[in-house]
Structure formats: C-alpha cells, structure tokens
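step: validate -> pass
step: tokenize input -> pass
step: predict -> running
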Amino acid sequence: MLDKTKKLISLSLAGLSTLPALVACDGGADKAPKKMNILFMMCDDHSYQTISAYDSTFIKTPNIDRIAADGVRFTNSFVANSISGPSRACMLTGKHSLANGFTDNSSSFDGAQQTFPKLLQAAGYETAVIGKWHLTSEPTGFNHWDILIGQGDYYNPTFICNGEKVQREGYATNVTTDLALDWLENGREADKPFCLLLHHKAPHRTWMPDTCDLELFADTEFPMPETFYDNYAGREAAKGQKMSISKDMDIVYDLKLADKDSTIHSRPDLEEWGRRIYNNMNTEQKKAWDAHYDVVIEKFKKAGLKGKELDKWKYQQYMRDYLRVITSVDRNVGRVLDYLEAEGLLENTLIVYTSDQGFYMGEHGWFDKRWMYEESFRTPLLMRLPGGVSGDVAEMVQNIDYAPTFLDLAGVEIPEDIHGTSLLPLLKNEKWEEGRDGIYYHYYEYPDEHAVKRHLGVRTEQYKLIHFYEDNVWELYDLKADKKELNNIYGKPGTEAVTADLKAKLVKLQEQYGEQEFIAK
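step: predict -> pass
step: emit ->
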C-alpha cells in the first residue's frame, strides 16, 4: 500500500504517460456512487484541426483520440461567443452572453447567479475547478478551486488555491494535471459523486512548449492553407482585422526571438512581456529554452527573410510551437485517463474534452479566434459516456448545451431559464427532441487589439447569415458550395428566399434568448 507521500511523488511526475494503480477508495465497488461522475476537460484555443480524431494533417493526438474512439465525436459543435471568458460563462450557465452578463473579457462574472456546479453541489456532488478560470471574480459553487491568475503563465505559474496565492514550480499543463490527480486521489470525499473541471491554459498564446518538447517538429514543414493569402473580396469586415500572421504576429512576443543583444525589436510592451515570462523561468528551464531558441534566433538573423519567405517562416514557427504545446496536452490527457482506468473510475465517469472556442491555423492568413467563420465558431467536442454509444453525431450542438447535459446526467431538474438543451439523448442514441434548425452567435468585443467588429448571426446546416450590426453590413454563405467561406452571396440574385428565411430564424432566436435590442430594423 502506497503511503500519501509516495502517491504525491507519483502524481507529480509530469512526464509519465501512465500512472501506477493506486489505493482504491474506501468502501469498495459495492459502495461506489450511484450517480455518474463528470470529468470536464477543456483547453484554451485548441483548434479541431489539431486533434487527429478530427484531422490528422498536422499532428497525432492518441490520448485525446481515446475519448473519441470509445465515445462520441460531435462533428457540428459550436460556441456562442468565440472568446475565452464569455465562452466559459456560457458553459457554466447554459445561457448566451447577454443573459449571463459576461459579454466580453472586460466583464466580471456574477458568481451569485445560477450555474451548473452550484446545482450539482446542491444535489450531493463534490465539485472542483482546477486550472484556467479567466472570469475575474472568484469561483462559486465549488468545494475546491485552484485556479490560474488571469491567463496564467506556462512556466512556474501562480495559482489561487481557495483564496490563497501559491506559485508552483513546473510547466503549467503538467502542474494543472498534477493538482487534478491529487484532488481525485486525496482531496475529495470518495463516497460522493464528483464533477471536476480540469481546464488547461494551453494552447493559449504565446504557445510556449514544455522543455522536453522543444525539438519536436523541428524538421517538419507544415502545408500552408490555401486561403493564407485571402484578399477578403466581398468581406469588408475581414479587411480591418489585426490578427494576420504576416502583419500582426509579433516576432518577439509570439515567435520567441528575444535575442540576448536585443537587436531584434517589436512593440515595446510586447517585448517587455516576453522578457518577463523568460525571467520567471528557473535556471534549468532557461538552459533548455536557450539551447533551442538561441539556435532558431541565429538562423533567423542570417536568413534575412522578407516578403512571402518571411510569412512562410512565421507560419512554420507558429505551427511548430503550437503543436509542441498540444503534444503536452495530449500526454497529460493520457495521464488522467490512465488514472481513471487504474482506479476503476472509467466506467462510472462521463468524460468530456473540448476547447473554449476554435482557432485559426493560418486559414485566411490568421491566428486567434472571435469570428463567426467556421474555424473559430466550430469547436472540438468529444464525450465518452459509459454504456453510451460511440461514433459521430452530426446534429448542431453548442456550448450552452453542456450545463443541461451535466444536470440531466445527474438527475437534476434543468431550470427553465437555461438556453441550452441536454445532449444526453445523443450520447444514448435516443431521439433528440431539440431538433434545431439554426444556432445563434454573438460577438461583442470591439475595439480590442484584434479589431474584429461586433457581429451576430444564425447558422443552419447549409447556410450562415452574419450581421456586422454597427456598420449594418451583412454576409451570407452557402456552406455546402463554399466551405471556406470565400464567397459572400448576400444580396445576389436568387438568394432572396434564403435570406428572408434566415432573417426570420435570426429574429426568432434573438427573441428566444432575450436579444431583442439587436434585432435589425
């Protein structure tokens, strides 16, 4: 029998892909909780394009894929507002942004309002959130919370553990996983069902890899998207954005070219931020970091790249670092799955993996998110329900559906004011009463550093209608004929009936979700 000290040492070995079988919870299998546990794993800015269960072009993610292999892959999963804090608020409340009060990242989440952790807690669940929170106010409805401050740091991050600041040595993805495994093993009441929100900072900008992954993909050339040099013809709103890899991705802050003699310069505030992050590393971390990036910097200086050659270099550097970060995420997902299996929890736990939104891997020349265009609107969603079905689910679902799904699974009555609907029937291959013929989106944050205009819209299986309402500009896409959304057909002859139908659907959804003030006059 392992004593507590040995367990903690075992759990803190961040590089392990498996965990030894640890002591079973007191009481044995015959006293296991009757209610299903919930493990809700989420990353920040993890694109569906970089999960091999969806697309194996760039990377293999064998551990995340395990969830899909034994469960359900949602192929039409979307967010309600493609930006971190608001997206998280939608998930917690099951409501769109205006209704939950957190419309953009300058907001503060009202922790007094109804959330699914509170309702689960009241129903006897042990609840915890560990990792990224990013909602400004302190978490409520949790028996235990251990959260990163703001965006958090990749190296030696500071957490707030139940109100007290604690800096922890190590790489954020490993540390967050360690804390989650320790809570599962030592921190919860074993006779209660649990709901654990394990939320990683990764792979949020600026994509800083773990030191053991720095050399991955060093010789890999990734294919640049066909739309990298999109000219945004017919899409005026897209022309004003500031999220271009060519023009806006910072050479020092984003791409790690902070040379020791400071001959490479960028925006002063971003340079300062990058150097602060570096200075937060310990000696061994700096040594590994320098061994890799000093070589990259020297080669870059000698190359003297300009124009499209510089664009290509920036894209490759971005992709390599981003995918290195994803490798660490996948490894740590494997650690958690192995623990659940070793502890006999795998067959009594709903496992969810998702991201707070999608992300651009160079499509349209971009990084970041925010738009209602597919790459940022669409998000990965994998769910494994013991005894449930496996395979693809094509119905349109949204992150407002997570809260009612968890409540439904726990046998908790779903409040009438929740906007989402339970996905549990889809996990059981039962009839889904929702039968959506359209989903609603609204992005509020402008102006900000990426200059994406406020917009809202409706998406059906075939069409997407977007309204940039402050400029009264409309865009319409036929998603079957134009998957890359390059051809805005709004106002074109022959689209009158489709446009009228979509506008009617849009108004209906706005009335349903209490957004009447945004109905176009």
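step: describe -> The chain has 14 helices and 16 strands.
step: cleanup -> pass
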